[in-house]
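If you are new to this repository, start here. Below is one unmodified record pulled from the training split, so you can see the exact layout before writing a loader.
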Amino acid sequence: MNPMRFISGAIVILLTIFAVLNQWCFIAIVCTITIGGLYEFFYMIKKKDIPIYSYTGILIGLLIPLSIFFRFELTRNWELLFIVCAFLLILLLQFNRKDNRNAILGLSTTLFGVLYVSWFFSFIIKTRFLLPGIEGPKLVAFIVLVTKSGDIGSLFIGTWAGRHPLLPKVSPNKSVEGTIGGILVSGFVAVLCCSWLPPLPFFTPFFVVLMGFFFGCLGQLGDLSESLIKRDCNVKDSGSLLPGLGGILDVIDSLLFSVPAFYLYMSSTLNHP
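And here is the target side for that same chain:
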């Protein structure tokens, strides 16, 4: 194993533990990840000469997790209203530009970056406060471990036994064997961590395995989606902040799909057991 990958991975694990245990560390890390992820996204898009509003997008993206954490809600699910207002702000900025070529592309790409990185990742905050006390952090730990263990399993199994490319035009190094292995690892880890889930009667080991498979699949889809963006922008990694691992987006890509789905499922389950 690349020693820098091991060191970066250890740092990420330590920061994750601190974030799960302390809410102020949690929001600080979430905001840092949001800013860094948006910066990397917009930096990649700039390579395609698309006229985006990167700093405005980063500011808007930062306000979403902060508003959720501090429970600043003008209306129910008000972040959707906030995103609409953000679109209008970006539209007003476009009116002031001298060159309106590719205006639609710039507007939609900027808003997509805010939704893809900031809004999707902000569901991890909602997950943390879904249950009181230590139960909320347990939910965060569950979905993070299930998703990221699938990433690690996919990497090792794909390196060891990968023979058949999955989607070579999107991610040349991803194999069918590695993807299936990663999903199986997610199911196995879900069973190991099932005690972190609420004690509901239908959370049997078999059902939890299926949950692990499902969220593991979403994690693999998130990884492929970011690979598609990088492929389109002709970059290998989203950034170089974490030597051996790449950028922030390379670390959280699998969580961007699994965490929102996990929150929506758990909130629906807890409200209608």
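Two things worth knowing about this chain: The mean pLDDT is 88. The chain has one domain: 3-271.
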